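W.,

You were right to be curious about this one. When I first looked at the sequence I had no strong expectations either way, so I just let the prediction run and decided to look at it fresh. Below is the sequence, 461 residues in total, followed by the output.
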Amino acid sequence: MSQVDEQGLPEGMSDDDAEFLAAARQLEEEAQDFGGSGGNGNSLEEYRNIAYLPLKSKDWVIYRCLGKIPVAIDKITDPKSTQAIEINKVELMSDKNKKNTYYIPDRNKSNPKKDHVFWRIYDKITEFEWDKKPGDLKASKVYRYEHAFPALFTFAQNGGFPGKQGEFARGLKGKRIVIQNVIDRNDPQWHKEHQHSKLLARTCSEYTDKKTGETKLFYDLGISTFGYLTLWGSLWQNYGNWEKYDVAAFRTGVTQPAMKLLNASEYKTKEIIELPKKFWPQVVVGPLTDEEIKYERYEIARLFGISTYTKILNIKERLAAIDEAFNTHFLEEVQDYSSEEKKKWKEEGKDEEGGETTSSKSIVKEEKAPMEEKVEEKVEKPVSRRAVADETTKKDFSTILKGWAKLSEAEKAQIIDVEQVDGKIVVKYNSKKELVDCPKCNSLSPEDFMACPSCGARFSV
């Protein structure tokens, strides 16, 4: 066991290692959250102006990480940040049967009503109960709508991909990945010529365009968070800041473990042959050089920010089918946000996609898949007990509340007064329900309201 200095850092570590050591301890405490991640996706993406370093199967790749430890995309406030990020990558079949890639934040554990629309749609379609039959050792999930709406249930689970593609797809949940800047030790000349970093990718594949005969490279961007950060937790705990040493990694080709990761600088120095000698010349021992520190790095937060609602309208027909089946308002919500985006882009002089970078547009194979079947079944909406409005004292707040017209009479009856405090509208209710905030404007309303009185945003049930 290594000795610890007066500041609580292992011997040989400095202040710039503290953040990595703290992250390692947190990963250790939350190890139960890093269960098996299931099959990996098979997305193929091409970003013409971005250089990638793909990992290899059963062969070591040597690289040096750049920047701070990965953080969730919604924690980054600087759009030009080059820091490594964690984000969910969702791949869905569009209404035109083409693959679309979306990037969404992780779940909002403190307030599920503020979850991204994809999470809320997934939760609605995959509602379940635990069922334990006599003789069973464990209870099993019984999905409420798996048989009532099989096409929509399948879409939630695999994104609408046909055949073998669907077997490995993650559906609306997507796959949580790490995107990071690195230095490729097998290609030092490229870095010297371009004075730039590369982005780490899971794989690289070739695709030949049938029309032009041109061969293109496709990269599966990012590394699955599960497993990868667990391995890093061990390295951070023992060696600290990842900018101080080279690492060697490869994909094992099996599920457990999916990859191997080791401190290549340490293995070279101690001549540990688990990293074969043929790789030692690539490995750099020591800190980053002044030249490497100055390398330009990709602005990851900008290139791979959360996808726009306008792009989500590529699955407009599927959203409409979901709303019809479950009596929800997801399509209206997405359209409202899309209208706001377009208005903002127009004010900023941007194009209709907000000047989206190529990162948010996936390269699509011209492969057709069967369209989602039409949803004809209807889910009976639960009957809720409604308060009776007193007609003699009925009030009208339509001139103050933008969402007044979208409220039911029972909901309107629960509003007893509206005030403006420091320029903000405050609604007072006679409801005993818990008040939750609107994901759009943050104003409060009872948890069973179907729309926000203040801004008119529709809520999912």
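Here's what jumped out at me. Residues 330-348 form the longest helix (19 residues). And, maybe more interesting for your project: The two ends are 53 Å apart (CA to CA).

Coffee later to discuss?

I.
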